[in-house]
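Researcher: I've been going back and forth with a colleague about how BRWD1 protein might be arranged in three dimensions. Neither of us has a model we trust, so I'd like an independent prediction. The organism is Leptocoma aspasia, in case that matters for your notes. Sequence below.
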Amino acid sequence: MKPKVTMIAWNQNDNYVVTAVNNHLLKVWNSSTGQLLHDLVGHADEVFVLETHPFDGRIMLSAGHDGNIFIWDITKGTKTKHYFNMIEGQGHGAVFDCKFSPDGQHFACTDSHGHLLIFGFGCSRPYEKIPDQMFFHTDYRPLIRDSNNYVLDEQTQQAPHLMPPPFLVDVDGNPHPTKYQRLVPGRENCADEHLIPQLGYVATSDGEVVEQVIGQQTVDQDEPGLEPSILDGMIRQLQLEQDQRTAADQESAPSGPQNGEGTPRRG
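Model: Here is an independent structure prediction for BRWD1 protein. You can compare it with whatever you and your colleague have in mind.
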């Protein structure tokens, strides 16, 4: 096997360079002389995460597809702490990313199963009030491209960045209570009736029909004269404002051939 470097990182004071090689070794080098100082042994698969401690130049964190998370003392070439990301009934979860907190007392990792792992000192009480499963209901919505090659949300036919803030749901698509919906940026000051999602039945890729969030509803949808969906009303308002801006630009622009390129209109 030809050795290949998969990741490289300097320590906090730039005195050392750590490289991860596809033979599962981590190598510590003197950044000034290029001398190899240590071979760090422990990983059983390729490593794509190397994170230095925010203020301690001795500490380096590594994580890889083998589910192992190591904290190393790179000045001594020794292993300080080791965690293994075992998932009950599913084997281990490959670790894709890790970051230290600014104070260096905690670090968080994400794995291949969608888990956020938080390590550190103290108790976990502040995190217990947060649901175990949190996803945006638009996370796995399909996208399409129109004739101008613009990306649109398949269901609403709108550009994703123009859509209203999403709802928080669990792994099965069931919405969380309104107190958690206010954690989403853009929904902090919404009234309770605007935090109630509209549920509907959606077919998954394997043909199974499940109930999921499809939009936003009001409390009294059956009253005449009200919008059937707040989401649809917001989309129409955005389209109206865009049409007004386009008309104003056309009136102020000099006569002659126009380029005509812009955001596509959708009914």
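Researcher: What would you highlight for our discussion?
Model: I'd start with this: The CA atoms of residues 253 and 259 lie 12 Å apart. After that, consider the following. The two ends are 57 Å apart (CA to CA).
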